[in-house]
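ingest -> validate -> predict -> emit
validate: passed (alphabet ok, no gaps, 316 aa)
predict: started
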Amino acid sequence: MAEEECELSDEQKKEIAKWFLYNAPSGEIQYIAKDLRSVLNDDKLYDEATSEAFPLYNKSHLICLELPCRSGDVLITPYNELEENQFIEPRTAQIVTIDHVKQACTEVRPAADEELASPYVEEFRCALDAEILKYVEEAYPKGVCSVYCVDGKDAEGPGCNFEFAVVIAAARNSPKNFCNGSWRSVWNIKFKEDALEIKGKLQVDAHYFEEGNVQLDAEQECQDGTIFQLHLAKCLTSPKILLQAPDDCAISIANIIRHHEAEYLKSLETSYSNLSDKTFKDLRRKLPVTRTLFPWHNTLQFSLTRDIQKELGIGK
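emit:
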C-alpha cells in the first residue's frame, strides 16, 4: 500500500535542514549549507536554520578561526564562550566576536580585568597552557589548543577550588582529495584542596567520499578520576605539591593527557588495521548524482526522511 503523501511544514523543513547542518562531517558544513539553500529555496527558512545550527556545530567541532591581521587564532568552544558570539582568547587576553555562519572573526577587543582569572589561577593556567602547547606541537600537525578556567576563576590562594578545561583540536580537510577528518579532545581538570580530578573525552571523525561514502566516528570517555589521582601520586611526592608548584603540576597533567591520548590512538590504529580490503569495499556505498529537485511534497517515500522525522520527533 502506497504511503500517504505528506507536505512538510516550514518548521519541519527547518528542523530537517538543521539536522543535516549539525551532523555535517568535519569541514563540510559550508558545502552542505550551500546545497540546502538550493533545496529549501526559501531565504527566510535558510537563515533561521543556519543561525541556529552553525553555533552548535562550531562549538561542538571546536573550530579554530584566525584573528584579524593574522594576529593569532581563537578556538570556538563552550568553555570560552562569554555571551552570544563572544569568546575569550586567554593566551592573548582578548575577547573575540565572531560570525558563526561565515565562520569568521568580526571584532577583537582587550579583555577586561573581571573577564580574566585571578593572578593565582592564571599562574596555573599559563603553566599548563605552555606544557599542552608543547605536547600538541609534537603530537598533532597543525593542531591547536588552549586552557580555559571554567570555574573558580577568582580563587586567590591554596585551599580554593577551581577548574580548567584543556581543549585540543586538529583538523585535516582535503575536499579536493575527497577526505576530511578531525581530532577533538577535552580534559576537565578540577583542582581541590588535597586532590586533583581529571576527566577526558576524545573524539575522532573521518569522512572519505571518493566514489563512495565511508565515515568514522569514534569516541572515548575517561571518567575514572581515581586512576589519574593515583598516577599523579607516582609523579609527585604529595598531591598538595600540586597546589604549590604550577610548573610541576602542569608537567604531570600534560604527561597524563599525552599517555592516554597515545593509548587511544594506538587502539584505533590496531582496530582499523585489522579491517581487510574486502571489508572496506563492502562499506563503500556509491553516491548517486542527480539533478532532480527534491520532492518536498512527497518526502515520506525516502527512508532517510522518515528516520530524521522520527529522531526529531516531528510529523507525528
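The two ends are 20 Å apart (CA to CA).
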